[in-house]
Amino acid sequence: MAEPAGSPGLGAGESWAQGLPLRILVTGGAGFIGSAFVRLLLGLPDPPQVIVLDALTYAGNLANLAEVADHPRYRFMHGNICDPAAVEAAVAEVDCIVNFAAESHVDRSILDPGQFIQTDVFGTYVLLEAARRHGHGRFLQVSTDEVYGDVEAPRLSTEDDPLRPRSPYAASKAGGEMQCRAYHATYGVPVIVTRGSNTYGPYQYPEKIIPLFITNALEGRALPLYGRGTAVRDYLYVDDHARGIAMVLARGAIGAAYNIGQGDAPIDGQTVARSVVELTGSDPALVTHVKDRPGHDLRYALDTTRMRQMGWSPTRTLASGLEETVRWYQERRDWWEPIKSGAFWDFYRRNYRPLAGAGPVP
Ligand code: NAD
Ligand code: TYD
Fold first, then answer.
1. Fold of 20-205+235-264+297-316
2. 46 in catalytic set
3. Where are the domains of the chain?
4. In whole angstroms, how far apart are CA 221 and each of 59, 156, 204, 224, 286?
5. pTM exceeds 0.85 for this model
6. Given a cut of 70, is residue 300 above it in pLDDT?
7. 8 Å CB contact between 169 and 109
8. Tens digit of pLDDT for each residue in 268-284?
């Protein structure tokens, strides 16, 4: 297909980028997926202005944005989405908001749900209020497939399914979404929602299964598999998730939700553990069954037809994405070794010590 006029340098697959707003606020842009999204935007031939607002919690890391730190169209603002003054200062300078900022780890939500309500629910409300006042072009809420709750095989969750969250994390994300829906219906705020699946790749804080298991394997530590390791997830490579969000921002219908997922047969924990052992050349005996997570959702699986109709599809298989990711963690010990210290081990001890067999914890 011929490239539309006025898009020099854009490949056929990137023509969607012309629909992007000119000035974009990315909250939570110093985290895992948010930073991939920022790197994607600033790598476009004609990039928008990007402002990152981030509180730099334990999961936020300016090293994730090091490669764009000097980009003329990028600015970092240190601030909390729960703070109306910080939000106002950032929102005044943009045409749209993409909200990645969140507490994002299920096990932490089980230990301490309060901070999840604060950021994922109240913080979303503060952002929506600012969007309402400024009459912005778009408000994209980055949500998760976990809002659907556990889905029985062989069903796939579609965007019109009811939200049945079961973990404190999923409930707080569903709460954020519900407010988006209300602000759209009541005040006409032009909200769009994405529901991404389990994401993995470079720069992921080593607490979710894939980066935790890779770094534990590289350190010769146990890989603690919850229960029988049969719970399944749809695993998506981070750059594919980031590009999906950018396409929805450029082309999505106001008021709609979009599932972004690999869409293959979901993968169980045992398969993840086995693949990490193989790719890192580790001892299979590191894989250790521990007590199950309370309320463990046993299956997430997404229908991704809507995204595919928009022209999006993943560029990685789990095999190729996992291989790249393992290589990255092998090469970037300078990034993750400093993270696995101090406060990281405080969390690790609280979460894993009660689970018999999780191995020695420093
Ligand atoms: P992350 O935990 O790596 O990063 C979260 C970022 O938000 C960090 O930079 C942190 O400093 C920042 N932040 C937290 N609280 C804040 C606050 N109150 N104010 C400002 N900044 C704050 O998360 P992630 O894995 O990159 O996830 C990003 C978004 O995508 C989240 O909304 C999450 O719910 C959603 N999501 C994640 C996944 C996944 O598998 N990781 C899948 C689907 C959806
Ligand atoms: P996780 O990466 O925490 O993502 P989520 O629970 O948000 O989907 O967990 C993915 C799967 O891996 C889930 O079934 C729980 C399992 N898991 C383990 O078996 N051991 C672990 O140490 C972790 C963190 C997760």
1. Rossmann fold (3.40.50)
2. no
3. 20-205+235-264+297-316
4. 22, 35, 18, 9, 7
5. yes
6. yes
7. yes
8. 999 999 999 999 999 99
C-alpha torsion angle, residues 19, 32, 262, 96 (rounded to 10):
-20
Q: Is the CB of 174 under 6 A from ligand 1?
A: no
Sign of the alpha-carbon torsion through 81, 84, 90, 94:
positive
Q: Is 146 a catalytic residue?
A: yes
Helix (H, G, I), strand (E, B) or coil at 66: helix
Does residue 273 have its Cβ closer than 6 Å to ligand 2? no
> 142 CA distance to ligand 1 centroid (A)?
9
Predicted pLDDT of residue 135:
82
- Say how many Å lie between the CA of residue 190 and the centre of ligand 1: 22
For residue 100, the CA-to-ligand 1 centroid distance in Å is 5
Ligand lying closest to the C-alpha of residue 109: 2
Ligand 1 contact, 32 CB (< 6 A): yes
Which single residue is written with the structure tokens 């003329």?
72
Cα 90 from Cα 83, distance rounded (Å)? 11
Q: Give the C-alpha separation, 32 to 144, whole Å.
A: 14
